[in-house]
Amino acid sequence: MNKIKTLFLDNDAHVAPASHDSIRTVRTTCPYCGVGCGVLASVDNSTAKVTVKGDPQHPANFGKLCSKGSNLAETLGVERRLTHPYYQDKLAAMNGLSPSPSLTTLSTLVDNDTVIKAVDWETVLDDVAHRLSRTITEHGPQSVMFYVSGQLLTEDYYVANKLMKGFIGSNNIDSNSRLCMSSAVAGHKRAFGADLVPGSYTDFEDCDLLVLVGSNMAWCHPILFGRFLKAKQENPNKKLVVIDPRRTDSCEFADLHLPLAPGTDTHLYNGLLKYLTDNGHKDASYAAKCEGLEAALAAAEAWTLQAVASATKLTVEQVEQFYQLVAANSKTVSAFSMGVNQSSSGTDKVNAIINSHLLTGRVGKPGAGPFSLTGQPNAMGGREVGALANLLAGHLELDNAEHRQAVAEFWQSPESIRANTGIKACDAADAILSGNIKAIWIVATNPVVSLPEADKFKKALAECDLVIVSECSKDSDTIRCADIVLPAQGWSEKSGSVTNSERRISRQRSLMPAVGESKPDWWIFAQVAKRMGFKGFEYNDPSEIFLEHAALTSYQQHNYPRQLDLLAEIAAHGQPYESMQPLQWGGKHIDVVHANFKHKAPSLIAITPPKQAGAVNKFLSADGVHIVPSDNTSLPLRLITGRLRDQWHTMTRTALAPKLNQQQSVPTLTLHPKAAKNLGVLDNDFVCIGAQTDFKTQASKVMAQVAVSDEVRMGDAFMPMHWSDAFANLARVGTVIPTKVDPISSQPELKNSAIMVTPVNITTFGRILVHLDWLEAVLVQLRQLSSQQDKAGVPKLIWSISRQQDSVLIHLATGSESVGSEWLTLAYWQDFVARIAKSTKHKPMAATNSLNSSMMMSESDKQLRFVVRQNADTKNPTVDTAKQHLIMTIYIAPKREQLPSIHWLNSCFADMSKVPSVKWLLAGRPASGYVDPGRLVCACMGVGENTIIDAITSHGCNDASDVGKLCQAGTNCGSCVGQINELIKAHSPIKEAALA
Amino acid sequence: MPAPETASPTIRSSAINAQEHNDSANGVVIIGAGMAGSRLAIKLATVWQQNDSNTHSNGHHSNNTQENKAPKITLISKESEVGYNRIMLSPVLAGETSFEDTYLYDKGDYERLGIHVLAAVGVDKIDTNNQQLSLDNGDCFSYGKLVIATGSTARVIPFPNHQAKGVHVFRDVADVDLLSEYAKQGKTGLVIGGGVLGLEAACALSSQGAAMTVIHVDDYVLNRQLDLPAALMLQEELVRRGVGLEVSAASTTIEVNDADEVVGLSLKDGRTLAADFIVMAVGIIPNTQLAADSGIEVNRAIVVDENMHTCCPNIYAIGECVEINDELFGMVSSVNQHVDSLIQVLTHPAIESNWSPFVSVPLALKLKVSGIAVFSSGQIEFDDEELAVVEQIVYRHIEDNQYHCLFVKADHLIGAVLYGETGDGTFYSKLINEQIDISSVKQDLIFGAAYCQSKLENQDSDNAAISPVSTGEQTAVTQQETAALQTIACA
Predict the structure, then answer these.
(1) Superkingdom of this entry's organism (chain B) (predicted)?
(2) What range does the domain containing B32 cover?
(3) ipTM of predicted assembly, 2 dp
(4) Chain A residues within 8 A of B395 when measuring between CB atoms
(5) pLDDT tens digit sequence for B47-91
(6) Which range (A163-172, A545-554, A582-591) has the least confidence?
(7) DSSP letters spanning A864-918
(8) Among B282, B309, B339, where does a domain finish?
(9) Residue range A2-78 in CATH 3.40.50.10490
(10) Which residues of B touch A859 (CB under 8 A)?
(11) CATH number corresponding to A635-760
């Protein structure tokens, strides 16, 4: 009876009770970082409007969501979705001269476009299958590659991997996890014999010391960080150490920040290994069960405090303070992320960290363990199914013939699985350019933006015989390089499972019908597989795939025991797939030395750090001292890439949420004040970034605006990795990063690249706000303009876009005198608008309605403002501003400060009824009584900087919780609390009084 | 131009008796009851009446009231209509306003204030030695102070046949009556002169039924008041309204038939334009004959100093008939300034420190054509050298035909042209006239008073005391009249 009751309840567990009949609430999982927060998504059946909140029952987040997760509903607009399969003339599309497809019906696409040509699914699936088969016949199975993604669900991943390794007969499947987690995978396998994260999120609450290594957890894993902070707040004896060359927002809460030289983590951890040993903190009985201890200690022997301090450019005191903290706290969690993994010595870094835990026995115990914070929502799922070129499936080993045989049996593969490692992400470009790869299928990732030497990869795609791209967003740079584009379902539509950083499998459930003709990725792969004549892809539902995957993890466990054994876990869990609640495989902790461990004994790895780890730059020593080259207008620097608080990957999703674009809306390069001074640039000035080492796409350059801050070390520079051609020109930072990969994990170095930075003289700035309906046509114009270069190779136009609540903000800049003077003519903008209005392919909203335009110009001040409105009513044209729609506002000035702030203007795109005169629009603000809330600081609650400053100065708030009580800022995910504290420091009258 | 036969119904020359003549020996006599003369009479009388009542209420000098009694004011008007607002004749011609509405003051005001009005009477000669006037009705007349406010006459260019039937000017109420007749009959007319008056006349007549074309010798209309973009917008608007336009067109000969009636106008380019009538709107000529005949110094106009003194003792001159430092005047605001300066002189003859000498200020223009808002103020024409240092700030509302151009030099607004929407004209005039430093609001200047006023007022309170734009009587007048007397500029 109880059993029946439980099952009954469980069956509905994924649908939370709703207060109203017309509201349907679905339990699902956030698609962003590896924390894998549970989401309650409510759909209003009558309006189809979605609202999201954190799932209070999900053990990752207990109801909390960060700024990105909170804004998920804002990202579901169909206007940015791919809706139909199509063929593309990729060379024409790559020239940037065609807009991305904004079709909503098949017929508009066929009628109006020549660069892209719509096709129905039956035809295109047959064609893909036929062309892949023909390529395999003509060039062998090694001539085909899949490049997949941590955005895929486990079921998608599983089918792709099965098709490639089991049926096409090649291991050429790699994932963008290669750029994210492969050093962690390699490190885990070296240390534990399997890809295991031994701990749980509860360890973050239970530990006494949290060490963040190469992780800005406050921004990148804010909910999990929040759990630690809450515990620390309750018990201030808990300590936080942040090891990061940058003083990130995470440091705001740290007891100790070690701003070490990039690439010197292994030096630091070798020193720690020696220090712990020398000071009697070795757990002898635990260490005795590990291998490699002697060699590791021998390798660490040279790393005295002084040696470490010298290598890392930290002080002896800093290093010792850190070592003492680790020594004193047996409950230490060392959480590491991209700062460790994305390195040419990433695997060594991982193992250096793990060594310190193996030595002290701090593994798999409550509050203690090394903890890999995964970047993507399902990087872990991809690892479980083995969808990387050097993995097999179900945690079996590719280099083990018996394992390969077992998997081939399980799959009933037509041939045996190959032993050789397949082509990995960073080798794909060369493999294509050398003619080894003839066909590549890219799924749910944007490598034209994210890979190092991104322009080389783009060039390779241009030359590749067959490029297939499966995507859900049409604003992807990679789509433009495809011969065949397949529309995949996105979050909210697709259904399957994901695994988070603590090995917890959660369901992503569909809450909305598929947009257009989009399909699940597993379906697309399975359809192609069937059409290629393969058996074993007759899936009707993701649950069938999941169960097959689970069965494979359990397959021949007696012969080849693995920690991952899902069938057993699911049986124990006792829930059907549809109502499956979050399931942590392997239990809460995996103690790698004990009996339940099924592989070899864990190992300490002997690591010899590179002698000059930081000196990647021939002009720059590890401590950031410059040897100024002969051309002293340029400055050699070391580039670190990373995330912004509110953006995700290449922004194809987050950039749709207006609030998430407020924290930073232009590509920036953060420079130390001294570096900026040496370069002769100020905050917000433009610089050109070029690669310093000679790789083949050296001509690539990146334009960014300088953010001067001492949060980076002298000699370092930081640029966000998010920017793509969809949102800016010349801001793909990957184009200036050379391909230097870790020899073990093949993960590329993305945090320590030699660059040359040169000031760019900008003479004219522009700011355009445009109605969303007109954006596509405006972008076509911008891309055409920005494809032109002046004699010195400087682009005539630098632009970036940023979605606002009711409009899209476009930043313009030019250093070209001729472009600048063109921008100051009314005729130029009238022509600009006329060309957009005429655009037949992408007709703006009701372009037939008459337009009204107004301008203001001061030739001597080099300022122009131009506003275009449209009569709301076609039949009754009016001069009454309040009865018009705002289409576009354009502001041009020689100084950025002269451009109006956009907050009020943006609201006019939704409602012109309170705008009595066009002069208000030209002025950029109402004539009186308006206070600009300023730059958005809290993206969750939508609170601006001026509002927070007002809370500090007028209401006497002098800590972040007071500010939160007054204006809600920082009260949701808390990832902006660091910034609020900075504002309190800067503006608190109490502080000023104290200083006085 | 001959005055119409009908006299004003309430003001009659016969009302003046000999006793009053004798009083005038100490009195102020004003020749001319146009906008300058009538305003002076009313304002002067008002000031004196107030002083009078103050004196009486104070009770001082009650034994000596005869000496303190305010001088008599006599207003001599050649036209039978006294004190109408000539500026408003264009709306009258267009049928938008009745003539009755153009009186500046209620006719009862003259009687109430004890002003003697001699209407439809001309002055033949001034005996400056004996302070006496000879009137054209044979009377002689003494004065204590004499003010010449004889105004100006419309200029007529002596083209061949300029005296033919059908050649008119547009200057007074009699012209309005005559021209209205052509319009009612749907005749074809030409206006020579694309200045303010010419355009107003053409539009008014066109709206009343005449087929009108404006002949303008310069490249664009209103070329002294507007810059090219504003003028082009105005020209387009005129064409939309059915008013023909010939710019860069030099007239040569008025063509007539055997009956000496106008049939057309020949142009220098060889064309002849057909016409039933021609209106010359080519500027004004100050009326200086009387002054010159009486030995008062006349250059282009009657020469006066900043206190409106002519070269002769006790003789003053104001309005369009005067020149000060070589400057002639055609705008009502300067004429009002003349009046204000002279009132100080006349009411405080001995206390020179109370005087407020005339200061020349840039003037504003408004066009009185229904639905066409045009405003210009200050300097808007520049040579190349000036152009290099003058900043232009332009606002344009394209489909709605609005255009503003501000001319800024060294942090001061020196000129403004507004077309289509002129609400901020008064604000800009003030900035120009009072030479207010606009550096703090330059970025917002083009957006108008709403964006600048409070900042400027704060700046004022810091720097102390520049009067706000709108207070008191000065402003009431400004809003009613800020604008053109029809005008010197049309030539």
Answers:
(1) Bacteria
(2) 13-154+285-354
(3) 0.77
(4) 854-857, 919, 922
(5) 988 877 776 655 444 444 444 567 889 999 988 878 777 777 888
(6) A582-591
(7) EEEEEEEES-SSS----GGGEEEEEEEEEESSGGGSPPSHHHHHHHH--TT---H
(8) B282
(9) no
(10) 391-392, 394
(11) 2.40.40.20
